[in-house]
Amino acid sequence: MAVLRRLAAFALLATMVMGAVGYYQQRDIPRDRAPPLAGQSLNGKFLDLQQMTARGPVLVYFWATWCPYCRLVSPAVSDLSHDHQVISVAMQSGSDEELREYLAGRDLHFPSINDPAAALSGAWGVRVTPTIVIVDSRGEVRWVTSGTTSKLGLQLRLMLTD
After folding, report:
1. pLDDT class for 14, splitting at 50, 70, 90?
2. DSSP structural state of residue 133
């Protein structure tokens, strides 16, 4: 019984620490109105968050080719991009051509804006990758998460938005 109490106490403490770290990492991300986000995607299409939110929620995915957690999350975002609006921002990940090769080599199919100097990411207060923000049809930030997350978790957040 004492072992179970210790395990429960450890699990509670670990959960609190992880929550605090996540909150600290996301501290500069707006919690109300989403900042502007617009740019040319790697496939040549102009993406504008404000215009996209008029059609419903948008999943905004900040990621990087050098991020090990992004390798776990990117396939889920790619799958979701078939049925949901997605804008991804590739932070400090090389040239447009390098990014195209990276995405093609991993069979990833989400629209991506290259952010070589992290200017867009910085304007959003993003400090860690991956960071996912879900913006509703009014342009308001509804969900923010960083680190690994599941496709199901993202689908549920999108369904609960709008």
Report:
1. very low
2. E
